[in-house]
Amino acid sequence: MKKFLKHIILYSLLLMVATAAILTYSVTQLNKDRYFLLKPAASNVFLGYSHVQFSIADSILPSSRNLGMKGEAYVFTLIKARKIFQNNPSIKNAFIEVSNKQFNVYMDSCIWQDQFLKPRIPRFLSVMNAEEFSLLFSKNKSGTISGMTDFPRQNFVALSRNGDDVMRRMEWGGYRSLAGNKLPDDLKRIRALGYDPDTLDNQLSLTNILYLQKLVQLCREHSIKVWFFRTPMHPKSGDRTNEIVFQQILKSKFADIPFFDFIDLDLPDDEYFDINHLNQKGAKRFSGFLGDFFTYDLWNYSGNKLEMIHDRWHAFSWKY
Amino acid sequence: MLFNSLSFALFLPIVFFLYWFVCKHDRVKQNWLLLVSSYFFYACWDVRFLFLLMFSTALDYYSGLRIDGASSRSTKKTWLWISISINLGVLMLFKYFNFFAENFVSAAATLGIKMHAATINVLLPVGISFYTFHGLSYILDIYNNRIKAERNIVDYSVFVSFFPLLVAGPIERATHLLPQIKRNRTFNYTQLADGMRQILWGLVKKLLIADNLAMYADMIFAKHAQYHGSTLALGVVFFAIQIYADFSGYTDIATGTARLFGIELLRNFAFPYFSRDIAEFWRRWHISLTSWFKDYLYIPLGGSRGSTWMKIRNTYIVFLVSGFWHGANWTFIVWGLLHATYFLPLLLLNRNRQHLETVAAGRWLPSPKEFLSISVTFLLVCFAWIFFRSPNLSAAITFIGEMCSASFFSMPEVFPTLIVAIVLVFLIVEWMGREQPYAIAKTGLNLPRPVRWSMYLGITILIIIMSGKDQPFIYFRF
User: Fold this and answer.
1) How is A211-239 classified by DSSP, letter by letter?
2) CB B278 within 8 A of CB B336
3) Closest residue on chain B to A6 (Cα)
């Protein structure tokens, strides 16, 4: 009995040492700066979640890179932005998407619920700091540990095979075009459900708002200028809920950051993929419109932004 | 609680420690511990179904006592049928009710009668097919005077719900498992070390082979219209190896875990893909289920005695029921009938027992004839797996049509070189160890301990860094 126990303990210790060595090797390798260089170099980065990922066709825009990733809460955006900003001094402007949903309590689940946390731990563990780790661990211990066990599996072999393509493999964002149009189905479903935005939960995700503040702070530390923007959304979209609260938060916590609101741009229905996202046709039109903002330096417009956006949109759409 | 989960990695050492170091040599305490831990293990899936398991256990325990104590044949028969009816009734309700209701409505619709299917939206209790068959074999064995009814309800409950075999077998027999539960278990280093080795090999099969292949097999079956025939054929081979590695991997973990508690389970797999004909395949694939059907269905139906037509009828009934046991879907029924059709010529020509020994025993390589037989058998089995894997019959037929197109002769679009290389090494190790209870049972035992341990450590690290995305065990859904 003693012999068996002794052997089991010894074997477990050896295994732990070997696993620690693998983890250390993977973390060290994954932290190498060369993996986080934007190619080609970009001055403008777009950050946010699915609305950004599917709406900004960055190839149309000058010196821009879409780093939006679906379902990504600001804590993860902050982790990746820190690494990317460190290694890309060419970045001068950060366009951060803010939306009603990102301030909603729903985003808490995007941070620590199993389905979101488990796949993200292997992609972010090597670059997150102790505070970020302890937040995730305190909110979901089993999910964090489970994600950590996936870390060597997802990274060790891939490191030797994928070369420099680490950001793509870690799904750190990038424009993704959506083909097709599911909007009619979504509208039918909403009609059937008797959609009422007032019945939706209006609790806030304080964690997500806090990490948005930290993200803004990080940009400032790197002398990167910050803009907030909101992508076009269908008038029936559920992501428009709690508008008053949304505006209040912007005014109270982010009053010094210019906010460009594109939510009400009247895109035709066939340019939506679904009720919340543009398809590739809509993304092309919207990105073309954003191109004008760079061409005519409209990001620094100091007048009534909403009026300017709508005036220019009508002119742009007429030409388009 | 999955065998390949962190919670099980915590659960198992705790139960192991309590079993050997707290309960020590007190068999009664050990059995209580096994029962409580088994119920906890099962409750982790869904605590509501624990009561169903307890009900099934109590029913068979009581029926067993009544059958054993009955003075007349008719009373015995009454209790036997009460037990069978309730056991199968519960199984039918949870597993087959919707299937029958939907098919009844479809059949009525073809006759022009409009009906509404009153389907029930219930979860399938995990392991129900397995523990129901445990209970049935116990009752039938008492009825047939093979065993006496068990009087100790704890011992009997451990027999039904022993956690390593509870959710996906092997389907144990009371004649084999109950005597082990009733005797004192002694701490045997060799048995325990062997158990650990078998668990390790089970994890290799599940995490390294099955889970990696699952990603590709799932992708190819889900989007079969997009791929060349050659890719679809590769997908079928991937699935064939996946389901073997998944299920036999589970069995290895279960058997190895049982050994840690001094209990030997029935063998469930014996390298089935090295079979030279379908009869041999079925002696080597899911052995505990095959032998269950042979003993409790095929032989009572008359077996191979009687006229040719009786043999044909019995063979088709057994394979039909076997297919239906896997799930309430026509795909499983066709899968079973296909195997019956493969098996029948061997039975009728009396050649179904010509390959009882391990192929190429004592040799490194098979003869060309053996190699050809193995390949043909594997292809036949693969063809049947298409039905097993497809969501419905029309999908299976479409898949076969697309696979057998001209594009079969083009290069496959999907070819994961590293995974294929790992699978090839796995098959070589399986071939080398085919005369053992599991492939690495004797591998490296003569080597010095540091070398042997390095080998085990290497295998464990390979699992850590190269396992596929978590997938549930396929047989849990049955």
Assistant:
1) HHHHHHHHHHHTT-EEEEEE----TT-GG
2) no
3) B189
Could you give the strand order of the β-sheet that contains A44-47, starting from the edge strand earlier in sequence? A64-66, A44-47, A93-97, A225-230, A259-261
Q: Catalytic annotation on B176?
A: no
Walk along chain B (478 residues) and give the pLDDT tens digit of each residue: 788 788 898 999 999 999 998 998 899 999 999 999 999 999 998 888 899 999 999 999 999 999 999 988 899 999 999 999 999 998 888 877 777 777 777 777 777 777 665 655 666 788 888 999 999 999 999 999 999 999 999 999 999 999 999 888 799 999 999 999 999 998 999 999 999 999 999 999 999 999 999 999 999 999 988 899 999 999 999 999 999 999 999 999 999 999 999 999 999 999 999 999 999 999 999 999 999 999 999 999 988 888 888 888 999 999 999 998 888 889 999 999 999 999 999 988 888 888 889 988 889 999 999 999 999 999 999 999 999 999 999 999 999 999 998 889 989 988 888 899 999 999 999 999 999 999 999 988 889 989 999 999 999 999 988 887 777 888 776 6
Q: Which residues contact B62 (CB under 8 A, 6 or more apart)?
A: none
Give the number of A-B residue pairs with CB atoms closer than 8 Å: 43
**Which residues of A are less than 8 Å from B187 in CB distance?**
1, 4
Could you tell me the end-to-end alpha-carbon distance of chain A, in angstroms, rounded to an integer? 80
The beta-carbon neighbor of B464 closest among A8, A11, A153 is A153
Contacts of B466 in chain A (CB under 8 A): 153, 157
Alpha carbons A232 and A272: distance in angstroms, whole number = 9
Q: Do A1 and B464 count as a contact with CB atoms less than 8 A apart?
A: no
* Residues of B in Cβ contact (< 8 Å) with A11: 453, 456-457
The answer to whether ipTM exceeds 0.85 is no
How many of the other CB atoms lie within 10 Å of CB of A317? 14
Across the interface, whether the CB atoms of A153 and B187 are under 8 A apart is answered no
Which string of DSSP letters, residue by residue, matches B329-386? SHHHHHHHHHHHHHHHHHHHTT-TTS--SPTTTTSSS--HHHHHHHHHHHHHHHHHHH
DSSP annotation of A40: S
Q: Are A152 and B464 inside 8 Å of each other by CB?
A: yes
Q: At B87, which amino acid appears?
A: N
User: Which residue among B134, B224, B286, B326 is the active-site one?
Assistant: B326
Please choose, from the candidates B89, B176, B98, the residue with its C-alpha nearest in 3D space to the C-alpha of residue B141: B176
- Cβ–Cβ below 8 Å for A145 and B6: yes
